[in-house]
Design goal:
This protein is an alpha/beta fold and 269 residues long. It folds into two domains: 86 residues, no CATH class; 142 residues. The protein contains seven helices and six strands; from the N terminus they run βααααααβββαββ. The chain has a six-stranded mixed sheet. Helix 3 crosses helix 5 and helix 5 crosses helix 6.
Length: 269
C-alpha cells in the first residue's frame, strides 16, 4: 500500500471534476455528481429504490411521489438549460416549451402521440402529487409509477438534447442507486480487489498505483507499469463505480502525483 506522503512540487491538487472539465461535466461518464440535474436524478433513483424496498404502502407511496417529483424537476431544469434559464417552464409547461423551442429554432415535439404524449401524463401525475388535494385512495401509488416516470423522462431528456444538436448527457443513463443507508456513511458494501496489468508488478518505488479512498481508508485497485497515463483509467474506474468513494488517487511509488475528488451520493459534505 502506498503511503500518503507526497512531494508538494509534483502533486496535481485534488479538485472536483467540474473544475477540470468546466461546463462539460454534464457529459462526463463518471458517477461524480457535480451537476444539479444529476443530483436531482440521483434523488429520483434513490427514492425509486426506497419505494421498491418499502415494507408498507404508506412508505411506498411517499417514496413514489418523491421519485416522480425529483425526476420531473431534473428533466424540466435540463430542458431549461437547453432553451435558456429564463424560460421558466414550470407553469404551463407544454406551451412554454413550444415557445422556447421556437425561439431557439428547435423542432417542437409531437404532443399528440408517442413519447411526448406520455411525458404529459407524467406532468399531470406530478402536478396532481404536488398541487391537488388528494383523495386518500390516490396516496398509495404503485411503484411502477416511479419506474415509468424515470423511464419516460430519460427518453424525453435524450430527445430534447437531440433537438438541441447535443450529445445525450451521461447522467441520464444512470439507472442505479448506489447509496445504502443501512451502512454507516451510506456506502454500499462491495469487495475491493486489485487488478495488476503487465508490468504492474514493478518494484513499489516506481510502479503506478491507482487508489480509491473509501471510509477513511485507501484501497489499491490498479497496479500499472511506470509511465502509464492514469487519466483514462480513472475515467473507466469511476464510470463503472457501484459504491461511493471520496477520491481517486494516483501514486508513483510513495509519491502522490494526482488526485480526483469525487462527489458521490452518501459522501460527507
Amino acid at each position: 500500500m502506498p503511503s500518503r506522503r507526497c512531494a508538494a512540487r509534483n502533486i496535481l491538487p485534488g479538485k472536483p471534476l467540474r473544475d477540470r472539465v468546466g461546463c462539460q461535466t454534464e457529459g462526463m461518464t463518471t458517477r461524480s455528481v457535480d451537476w444539479p440535474h444529476y443530483h436531482l436524478w440521483t434523488d429520483a433513483l434513490h427514492a425509486r429504490q426506497l419505494a421498491r424496498d418499502a415494507a408498507n404502502e404508506w412508505d411506498r407511496g411517499a417514496y413514489v411521489r418523491w421519485a416522480v417529483n425529483s425526476a420531473w424537476t431534473a428533466f424540466e431544469t435540463a430542458c431549461e438549460s437547453l432553451v435558456g434559464p429564463g424560460a421558466h417552464l414550470g407553469n404551463r409547461f407544454k406551451k412554454k416549451l413550444d415557445e422556447a423551442l421556437d425561439r431557439c429554432g428547435f423542432a417542437r415535439p409531437n404532443w399528440g402521440s408517442g413519447l411526448w404524449q406520455d411525458v404529459m401524463k407524467v406532468y399531470g401525475q406530478r402536478k396532481s402529487f404536488t398541487h391537488d388535494v388528494q383523495d386518500q385512495s390516490t396516496l398509495f401509488p404503485d411503484r411502477s409509477v416511479a419506474d415509468d416516470a424515470i423511464r419516460l423522462l430519460r427518453l424525453a431528456t435524450k430527445d430534447m438534447y437531440a433537438r438541441a444538436g447535443k450529445a445525450d448527457p451521461k447522467w441520464v443513463e444512470d439507472d442505479e442507486d448506489i447509496y445504502d443507508p443501512s451502512r454507516p456513511g451510506g456506502l454500499s458494501g462491495h469487495a475491493i480487489g486489485t487488478v495488476t496489468t503487465a508490468g504492474g508488478d514493478a518494484p513499489d518505488a516506481v510502479r503506478i498505483a491507482i487508489v480509491l479512498a473509501v471510509d477513511g481508508k485507501e484501497h489499491v485497485v490498479r497496479a500499472e507499469p511506470p509511465g502509464t497515463d492514469p487519466e483514462p483509467l480513472i475515467e473507466q474506474i469511476l464510470a463503472g463505480m457501484k459504491m461511493a468513494v471520496l477520491a481517486v488517487r494516483v501514486y508513483q511509488g510513495d509519491e502522490l502525483i494526482k488526485e480526483e475528488l469525487v462527489n458521490m451520493r452518501g459522501n460527507p459534505l
